[in-house]
């Protein structure tokens, strides 16, 4: 929510001026209005007119947003630069917060309590960065926040990871498929457990999260469903418990559980350490109780810290700012499943590695360090906590020991959400060690989809696949789901997977009965592929680009057959976007997206 709040403020102001002012005139007018506002606490007529002329809802219903993109970087630099200068010239936190809150409310972005809460929670961290990083500039901040719009910081230098060249060991460890029973791996992700969910409350509210205790719907049709709701609502405890109980009863032969993050709900303007800690403990302890001796390998999602997204930089000692509490909590709660040797890296930055069994290694990353709305990247974005360099060392040892590796990582690297520099270095690592990495597992998007990695030296060669487990939350317009993978017990390749879901509309008609979970699909059967190897999936994307029935199927399954999601339909641009997501493992490498787009349009 806060990420959208910031973008909306910028783009609303951009849109307001985009059709009337250009260049220096825009910058000077914008800056002067903000400076006057900060110093006096009152809006100038010009700034007030800007907001009244172009209210946010109208702005974001425009189909052509190219004028906004054209001046977004300028607006971002002007707004943030003005605030940085004001702070360094003596403006206090209270002044700056008041300005931001007034603008947020005036622009009809979200209700006043949400504006106030989000700004209050994040202010301390941002002010610390401005006060303690002398070279922090608006250009640096905007180049990270709006990297998808190609905003630049000319003073920024890209960083690289030291990756040793291939050795005689760097060849594919291609073992024959085992004749033994495959391992059954369960992926759970994105629970977004909401302790404040209330059945019958208002499911159609103006806030980023609805279905909250004490809220009253204006119409019976807006009442929150028993099991959860398609609208902006998260997962009640009774739905979470019923879902886990179903999985344990339905799949009695699960060998391993991967949990890829996001326990905390979307009420990001009212989080605190105590509340997040309690929710994390409650969920993890229920998983322990339910799965017994079955090993669970968890990682952190971007919603786990307080404030949301903010995993602090190394060396930030202030307890109200640093993220040590979430690492301490994770180390304590995860120790039931992870050996003592993982403790140091968990306490350092929330990542770890261990053997699942001899020859089979798992790596749990904290990829939230790459999330471009982790604002501590403004402070230091150079391989936070040395995690990527650590990953290289882990994979070198795995290569030397002839181990196969699975990687768990909450944030997919292919979209614009992952810092481009981090994503590029991660892609280099995957390219170097693809021969021992047989699969990656992501969360975050809530969609049931896959991303294919390609050889940067030989773009026609697909080398790796990242699978996404979808979400237990229905947030938003999705059916809840989980995924069961069949993994070869010798070479640890993913042989197939099943996505299981329930229809939320149907479930809410019968609140006294448990939801009717069903196998949504088997990937091999649904798409007619011989296996789930990278090259086979790459060929599938080409067939999809030529075959409307396949692109329609992918849209339906990606949305987990949600009634509301499917009702929106998927036009040509939507289908191309789905195809491009499948073949983009690093946002700056658009080659395969361009190829599929050309095939689709031919």
From TrEMBL:
Keyword annotations for this protein, in alphabetical order, are: Disulfide bond, Glycoprotein, Glycosidase, Hydrolase, Metal-binding, Secreted, Signal, Zinc
Cofactor names from the entry are: Zn(2+)
Q: Name one GO cellular component term.
A: extracellular space
Q: Where does Zn(2+) 1 bind?
A: 190, 192, 262, 446
Assign the protein's first listed, main location to one coarse class.
secreted
| Chemical reaction(s) catalysed | a sphingomyelin + H2O = phosphocholine + an N-acylsphing-4-enine + H(+)
- GO BP of this protein: ceramide biosynthetic process; sphingomyelin catabolic process
Disulfide bonding pattern of the chain:
104-115, 205-210, 211-233, 370-418, 570-574
- Residue span(s) of domain Saposin B-type: 69-155
Query: What Pfam family does this protein match (any one)?
Result: ASMase_C
Concerning its family, UniProt says: Belongs to the acid sphingomyelinase family.
Its name, as the record gives it, is Saposin B-type domain-containing protein
Q: Which organism was this protein described from?
A: Ignelater luminosus (Cucubano)
Taxonomic classification: Eukaryota, Metazoa, Ecdysozoa, Arthropoda, Hexapoda
């Amino acid at each position: 929510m806060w990420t959208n709040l910031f973008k909306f403020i910028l783009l609303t102001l951009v849109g307001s001026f985009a059709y009337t002012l250009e260049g220096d005139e825009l910058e000077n007018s914008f800056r002067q209005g903000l400076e006057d506002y900060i110093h006096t606490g009152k809006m100038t007529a010009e700034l007030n007119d800007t907001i009244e002329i172009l209210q946010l809802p109208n702005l974001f219903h425009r189909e052509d947003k190219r004028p906004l993109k054209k001046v977004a970087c300028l607006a971002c630099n002007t707004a943030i630069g003005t605030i940085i200068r004001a702070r360094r010239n003596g403006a206090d936190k209270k002044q700056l917060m008041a300005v931001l809150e007034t603008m947020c409310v005036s622009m009809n972005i979200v209700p006043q309590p949400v504006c106030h809460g989000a700004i209050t929670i994040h202010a301390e961290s941002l002010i610390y960065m401005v006060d303690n990083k002398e070279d922090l500039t608006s250009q640096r901040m905007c180049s990270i926040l709006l990297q998808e719009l190609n905003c630049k910081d000319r003073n920024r230098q890209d960083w690289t990871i030291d990756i040793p060249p291939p050795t005689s060991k760097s060849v594919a460890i291609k073992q024959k498929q085992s004749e033994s029973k495959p391992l059954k791996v369960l992926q759970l992700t994105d629970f977004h457990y909401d302790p404040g969910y209330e059945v019958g409350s208002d499911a159609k509210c103006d806030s980023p999260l609805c279905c909250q205790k004490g809220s009253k719907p204006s119409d019976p049709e807006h009442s929150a469903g028993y099991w959860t709701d398609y609208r902006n609502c998260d997962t009640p405890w009774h739905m979470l418990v019923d879902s886990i109980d179903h999985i344990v009863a339905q799949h009695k032969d699960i060998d391993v559980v991967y949990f890829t993050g996001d326990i905390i709900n979307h009420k990001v303007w009212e989080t605190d350490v105590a509340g997040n800690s309690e929710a994390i403990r409650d969920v993890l302890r229920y998983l322990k109780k339910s799965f017994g001796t079955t090993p669970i390998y968890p990682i952190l999602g971007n919603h786990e810290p307080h404030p949301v997204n903010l995993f602090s930089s190394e060396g930030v000692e202030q307890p109200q700012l640093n993220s040590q509490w979430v690492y301490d909590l994770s180390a304590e709660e995860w120790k039931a499943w992870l050996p003592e040797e993982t403790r140091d890296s968990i306490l350092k930055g929330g990542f770890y590695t261990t053997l699942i069994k001899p020859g089979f290694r798992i790596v749990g990353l904290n990829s939230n360090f790459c999330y471009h709305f982790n604002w501590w990247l403004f402070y230091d974005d150079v391989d936070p906590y040395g995690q990527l360099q650590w990953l290289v060392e882990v994979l070198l040892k795995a290569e030397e020991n002839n181990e196969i590796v699975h990687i768990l990582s909450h944030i997919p690297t292919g979209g614009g959400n992952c810092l481009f520099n981090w994503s590029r270095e991660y892609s280099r690592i995957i390219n170097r060690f693809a021969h021992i990495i047989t699969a990656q597992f992501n969360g975050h998007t809530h969609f049931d989809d896959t991303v294919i990695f390609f050889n940067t030296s030989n773009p026609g060669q697909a080398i790796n696949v990242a699978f996404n487990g979808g979400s237990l939350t229905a947030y938003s317009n999705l059916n809840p789901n989980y995924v069961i993978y069949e993994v070869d017990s010798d070479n640890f390749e993913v042989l197939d997977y099943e996505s299981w879901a329930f229809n939320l509309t149907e479930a809410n008609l019968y609140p006294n009965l448990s939801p009717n979970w069903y196998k949504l699909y088997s990937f091999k059967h649904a798409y007619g592929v011989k296996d789930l190897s990278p090259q086979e999936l790459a060929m599938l994307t080409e067939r999809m680009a030529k075959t409307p029935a396949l692109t329609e199927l992918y849209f339906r399954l990606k949305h987990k057959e949600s009634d509301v999601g499917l009702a929106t339909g998927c036009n040509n641009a939507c289908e191309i976007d789905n195809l491009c997501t499948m073949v983009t493992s690093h946002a700056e490498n658009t080659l395969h997206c361009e190829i599929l787009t050309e095939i689709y349009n031919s």
